[in-house]
Amino acid sequence: MTSFAFFQRLSKSFQDHPSHLKLILLCTTVTGGGLLAYSDAASSEVPVTEKKKVVVLGTGWAGTSFLKNLNNPRYEVQVVSPRNYFAFTPLLPSVTCGTVEARSIVEPVRNIAKKKEVDVLFSEAECVKIDAENRKIYCRSNMNNNLNGKEEFVVDYDYLIIAVGANVNTFNTPGVVENCHFLKEVEDAQKIRRTVIDCFERANLPNLSEEEKKRILHFAIVGGGPTGVEFAASLHDFVNEDMIRLYPGIKDLVKITLLEAGDHILSMFDKRITAFAEDKFQRDGIDVKTGSMVVKVTDKEISTKELKNGGEIKTIPYGMAVWSTGIGTRPFIKDFMAQIGQASRRALATDEWLRVEGCNNVYALGDCATINQRKVMEDIAAIFKKADKNNSGTLTVKEFQEAMNDICERYPQLELYLKNNQMRGIADLLKEAKGDVKKESIELNIEELKTALSKVDSQMKFLPATAQVASQQGTYLAKCFNRMEECEKNPEGPLRFRGEGRHRFKPFRYKHLGQFAPLGGEQTAAQLPGDWVSIGHSSQWLWYSVYASKQVSWRTRALVVTDWTRRFIFGRDSSRI
């Protein structure tokens, strides 16, 4: 009984004072003897490595892709963005006309974060300044929340991921900001939808002249890229499939005009798609004006400079204008670029590993950045020295081939040059420079190698500012962070031609998976890898399947498919909400 009371008091002591807990080992022998040993529990604890803090600016394609794929618990993540959700921007034109509801294409960031094993904190605010030297960012809450002057705060970081996208570029055209709609955010799409319906309601009033009704129902779209073309097609379907049934008296007064400064719309697509789109829009009654550069916008007229007619200035009356051309740099990014000596650039310059040049712990992805791919000719002497292992002063085909994988991985333009010129390998390239010599006996000195590789850098191209590029960059960088410690010990990247050893990671490589251009009437143009072009109804169904599968959650996937089904059965919603 006394023994039981002792253990009862001992147990209560452990429960009341867990910090004084001792490790008790009671080893009882067969004969009944015993040994009592103890030690502090704290002395056997494994020290916990301090977590590195990663700050992510932005919840667009790049930032969300990084967040979704980061799974290393050694990081503590803080996301700072003025919007607390991710938006599936390729479906914004569908939101403008009620084909898809706005709530169907957005996913709260906290829904994404709560599924992560990584510690994630979200702050709804916008970054106003980056202090790279002291590893701090200055933020301001964008909510009118009466914080008594405490709207601004400072966040420290170990790594900074800049994924803030870009602003609309108005090219300083007078009146654009004041009078045009944009189509970059969910709020923009909702505003356009309300304005379209307002135009029909205003034109339906009895006290307006027919000329005024025509002006109100003239919808002008500036920019013949994918967004402008898709919006024009969506608006045409909305008007002809839904609105004319509700407003039969004014259906013949509606006009849609697409203004493009270049010679063709969809200039980044295959010529077959461009020609088909222009022909289809002409058949549908959409007025495509190429060679028309907008020079001024007032509240009722758009002034254009007709480049094909000697620069003649024309004015076009309109009821609603949507500006859908060009991207510009955000103000705080401009300030940051000035700090790090990149003031003359249009976007943040990064290396092939997405690090901002001049800042080892700052990365930039998506529309706010561009990869500054190193040129082969800048490093030709270092490449020659690394490949010439026996220091003979000449390179054989065999020596160059041994370094070929590292060279192509570091300078992808070389591989692209060989492919575009239908060369089977580096031997063909070296043979071309050396002349009619057997491949096995080719030897080149450094000047001859310069001649052989002199045209390689002409294959370098900047990546397009698309969701596909941003998403792949976010995924790539997250995988690098997941394997940071492992690759520090065992680098897996190409040789450092201007240094020793290897790079930690393989450089980022964009893999183009194709692009779509919905043209209305349940027809879509698809340009897929391998120079495969598909146009028509079958491509529309491919578009449906791809855009449904690319949703970030099952919730948004179900909502989008439901909206499409509802539209097929009941038509688009034309109410002004």
From TrEMBL:
SUPFAM superfamilies, A to Z: EF-hand (SSF47473), FAD/NAD(P)-binding domain (SSF51905)
GO terms under cellular component: mitochondrial inner membrane; peroxisome
Protein name per Swiss-Prot or TrEMBL: NADH:ubiquinone reductase (non-electrogenic)
Keyword Transmembrane helix recorded: no
Assigned protein family: Belongs to the NADH dehydrogenase family.
Catalytic activity: a ubiquinone + NADH + H(+) = a ubiquinol + NAD(+); a quinone + NADH + H(+) = a quinol + NAD(+)
Listed GO MF terms: calcium ion binding; NADH dehydrogenase (quinone) (non-electrogenic) activity
Pfam families xrefs: EF-hand_1, NDH2_C, Pyr_redox_2
This protein's UniProt keywords: Calcium, FAD, Flavoprotein, Membrane, Metal-binding, Mitochondrion, Mitochondrion inner membrane, NAD, NADP, Oxidoreductase, Peroxisome, Transit peptide
